[in-house]
Give the backbone structure.
Amino acid sequence: MGSDVLASAGSDRVRSVVLTCRSGGRVTSMSERADHEIRHGEALAARDPDLVWGWGTSAGRVRARRRAKLIGLGARLGPGARVLEIGCGTGLFTEMFARSGCSILAVDISASLLERAKVRELPKDTVRLICGRFEDCGVEGPFDAVIGSSVLHHLDLADSLVKIHGLLGPNGILSFAEPNMLNPQVFAERKLRRLFPSVSPDETAFVRWTLTNDLQQAGFRDIEIVPFDWLHPAVPPRLIRLVSWTGGVLERTPFLRELSGSLLIRAVA
């Protein structure tokens, strides 16, 4: 509680964006893509987004805590750090990131999801929420880190990476976790998206070698992209420890690690 939505991305502003991007083999306008994301957020908010995304189960909560820890370690979150979180959604990860003592400016395109973030125990002296499309919202740097969970694959990647680089101060850090296209379930979700309500119409996933090149093109250095995450949200509580241990082994096994569910991404501006 205590964090305010400072601005709203109205439909007129969204429709004023005339850039285009490539998505799913067709050209999608930025206004169309943004509208899709806003409507998708509204549909999720009408249900329980964290359950739809898989964060609300016993295994999902363990998975979320690990993910937040790894993103935070990569970004060197701590007291005094000025941080931008992109795609904060319901504030699930914002709440965990805020425990480090850093100052967070969190942005999301969905006002409906941000309404859910407002009821979380977010420290009002260190967390602010903004509603808007990241690619054209008027945030000002420099930031020590730009972070997020499962959001880059919703954005116009090339423009977003350039903007992130510009918002980071010298030696500022980009730290994200994103879906891995080489994972069989992630691949199926993107190719058969009508069967998966948690997947929005234009989102994609990443192959780490291609993403490394995208980060280099945007000016980043010291790029590390590590496959991780074998704990599925549907794993029963009694099997969480066993699956987590097995996943840790798979994450260290050549070839098999490339099939992990997610990619941990870190780069320096």
Remarks:
- The radius of gyration is 17 Å.
- Residues 215 and 236 are 37 Å apart (CA to CA).
- The mean pLDDT is 84.
